[in-house]
Description:
This protein is of the alpha/beta class. The protein is about 40% helix and about 15% strand. It has helices at about 1-30, 40-45, 65-70, 75-85, 100-110, 125-130, 150-160, 175-180, 230-240, 260-265, 285-290; strands spanning about 115-120, 140-145, 170-175, 200-205, 215-220, 245-250, 280. α4 (about 75-85) packs across α5, α5 packs parallel to α6 and α6 (about 125-130) runs parallel beside α7. The longest helix has 28 residues, at about 1-30. About 25% of the residues are buried.
Amino acid sequence: STQEIRAWALEKSGNYRQIADILLALHNAIAPIHCLPTELLSMILALSWDFESGRVAIRVGHVCRHWRAVLWQTPAFWAQAFEVEIFRPPIDDKRNIPQSYLAYITHVLQYSSPECIRFISHPCPGAISRLLSPHIWRIKYLHVVLRSSQEFKDLYNVLIQGSTHLTTLAIELKTTPSDVRTLDSLLPVTDSALPRLRELSISLPIVRLFAVGSIENARISTKSERFESFVEFYEFVEKCSNIQHLILIRTLPRWQKPSGHLLANRSCRVVLPPSLNILDLHHSDKDIAHALPFL
């Protein structure tokens, strides 16, 4: 009957489809790309990120099950994700970040371990700082924009845990002077917490918290605040005994009359460390002229 013929044809086509799938899988299994050692395939996958395509690189895991398995077991691939992306978390009116966004960062942090990574986030709310906490020990480059003293405190609580690999730290604090004053009670980070910190770019109100002896290059900027006095400036320079290049952007103390008493008082004059090779002063000629008697 017609129905029997249709049933027979459907059964046979299913059997032939299974045979075709097996043959196709066998064909793919012996393809040259699948004959690569796993270590070599991991190296190739780790190079699949670029600045233009961004997260499109993750799609290489859709090629086949073997590639997907290798991808999950290649920390260098996931570490490279942080090299090509500046995180700009979408924040709603209630300052909440979508859970899917946080989940992505969580997974990439997890699968990139134990590789050293760089992390850039503009801004960096507390929710993201807390995600970094278990991984701070392997962050080598950290650049964040913070919009309040609370966001800074969240990051500060992570940094004081210590990071033996952090070599570059850049913190841009965008908040009001009254909000900044709530940070006065915080203690400076110790030299042992950031033993390899070499590059520091930081907002003036929080510079005292990161004056460690290993710093070689420092950039200090501000919106409106300045060093209160040359004594405060001296305390920073004294702690950074290995500094080689110092950039000050509108941060020198406001003009003080250089009386004989002040110039004779050693505590009012800044003795620059012998290691300092370059001092860049991004100030007006008047500000620099007023500062010279104290240097």
